[in-house]
Amino acid sequence: MAEPAEGDRRAGFVALIGAPNVGKSTLINALVGAKVSIVTPKVQTTRRLIRGIAIDGAAQLIFVDTPGIFSPRRRLDRAMVGTAWASTQDADVVALVIDAKKGVRDDDEAILRALSDVRAPKVLVLNKVDLVAKPALLKLTQTLNERVTLAATFMISALSGDGVADLKTWLAAHLPAGPWLYPEDQISDAPLRQLAAEITREKLYLRLHQELPYQSTVETDVWKELKGGAVRIEQTIYVERDSQRKIVLGKSGQAIQAIGAAARADIAKAIEQPVHLFLHVKVRQGWGDDPERYREMGLEFPKE
Ligand SMILES: Nc1nc2c(ncn2[C@@H]2O[C@H](COP(=O)(O)OP(=O)(O)OP(=O)(O)O)[C@@H](O)[C@H]2O)c(=O)[nH]1
Ligand SMILES: [Mg+2]
Q: How much distance in Å is there from the Cα of 143 to the middle of ligand 1?
């Protein structure tokens, strides 16, 4: 394809916001065409802003995946919700993602109220339309368009990819004119060690239940390129209590082995290199109140 002339180029930021679990991370991966953000069936999977970059014609789109917005209780929740709203301030377009199957719930209501303070143009993205009959979608579109001023409405399935290309093309046409902000082959601005830690956290979320996923975090400590092209990665999984450490390890280490095997395979695929992954599990009581952990996660540390 011919390169678009410098003067024709567009570039800008599109923030994807919405309640937890509506499919924002699935959508950013579909828009970028690669896994830049982790996805699980559990709420509150995403904890930080994740930028994913795509080209559409003459436009470079920088999508910003955000933590789901809900009414926060813990310090970590407040940091997550704060960072999600902060993303709307630098956005050229804000895409409000709604789970079309679940419709407008309390968290969505609160988001709709707060959206009136956001200056950027807004588009509505009804996601998971593979689960819903058409008449219900039309009703939901109408209700939401009465509530907020929306530049456009899209009905998509981030999972199947239906409607995603149309959304991307519309967004590309509505970004400001200007030079591209990243090299054109770049799909993410996150360091690989961060992506690797996120992938391990995804496997933790998939394997463990109740409060444990929410009380754990993963950091990459060592990243060493080995002779022959493989990489040695060491990571620490922090939990709050010793009882949780035992669950993460599992009976004769079965749980941690399964988490490690799944994470290793995905990390190797993402970085296109063989991986030797070593996981450590440490109890760090009160890590949710430790500023250093927030720095690692790329979040502001809320004062309370
Ligand atoms: N059927 C269906 N499921 C979807 C679709 N998009 C996402 N999902 C599923 O919805 C669940 C949540 O997806 P995520 O992408 O993690 O949602 P999220 O909005 O990023 O969630 P948080 O990070 O917790 O705010 C996963 O099980 C996805 O597979 C869709 O279009 N159709
Ligand atoms: Mg997410």
A: 23
